[in-house]
Amino acid sequence: MTAAPTVLHVRSSAGLYGAEYVVLGLIPELARRGIPSRLLSIDNHLQTRQVLFERAQELGVPAERLPCRGRFDLATVRALRAQIAATPNPLLHVHDYKSALIAWLARGRRRIPIVATSHGHFATDASLRAYQRLELWLMRRFDAVSIVSTEMRPALTAAGVPAERVHLIQNGIDTQRFRPDALPLQRAALGIAPDALVFGAAMRLTAQKNPLGLIDAFATLARAQPNAVLAFAGDGELRDAAAARAAERGIAERVHWLGARNDLDRFYTFCDVFVLPSLYEGLPLALLEAMAAARPIAVTAVGEVPAVIEGLGVVAAPPGDVAALGRALEAALAQPLPHTRLRDRVLERYSVARMAADYAAIYARCAREDGHARAA
Description:
- By secondary structure, the protein is an alpha/beta fold.
- It has two domains: 6-172 and 351-375, Glycogen Phosphorylase B (Rossmann fold, 3-Layer(aba) Sandwich), CATH 3.40.50; 188-349, Rossmann fold.
- It is built from 14 helices and 13 strands.
- The protein has a seven-stranded parallel beta sheet, sandwiched between helices.
- Strand 1 (6-12), helix 1 and strand 2 form a beta-alpha-beta unit.
- It is globular, with a radius of gyration of 21 Å.
- The relative contact order is 0.13.
């Protein structure tokens, strides 16, 4: 019988976003299934705080830091080799291009399985496109590659990743944390009237997430809904531009900036409608979390979103279509109560338990294949 692997999750992170929370949720669920694993967080040399590692500590997730003093540091490779040497039956699970490269170099000629997850990275400039090509080249040499959206598959197979090694494993969330009865944020403390109609978005304020388009769509709705307000949970490079756009549209006092938050479970139940206005996505965790909280939703038809909402009566706007997004906001107000069907969809397909079971099956297969290779 092949011994169960110990999974080392390697992640290079610039903040706490969807992929980070996927990893932080996966590790404890694997432990409940008897699969030991821990996070190896690669230091970000551009940041004074290593927020992924710190958040893991806060949540009690087993984690260690790998030093990194630049874009590439041989010390990181050596540190990962030491972790591998000290781990019984190691299996590496990498979650980004940098982690993939470090893991490939640290493994060397040793027969150690590597599983990669593509969390839906999108190349928006020349350097990111180069990193994406490197990651695709590495994935051809890994034992398994998971994707979070079906539309990612063609790029992998076109790059030469064997089709039988590509697995669709959709993101899963903690449905015990994200639930309809989570205590909502206090509106008075945020300067929001108790009878306000709150449209909320949890996002990085970047071009991909389309905060400017959301402000434009909300400005139209706001004229017909005098008690409507828009709340952003998150921060990013477009924060000032988004605030300026709100002022241009005459709704600055009706837009609230809540900043990056660790209490999104309370944010969703504070919202009357959750909005996902993205221009492109894989499988966005924020949407699943809001659905688990049984919030009405207004979304764009990006990535795996149409499959998530299929048959639920949700109007999805084409990405980038401001008028259609405005209509989706209005339609969300008319979604019939209760919204338990949204939560039921998440419980059925997108729980962290289901995600962990899918990964456990891949790990077991890789361990068996590795055992056969060693015996040969």
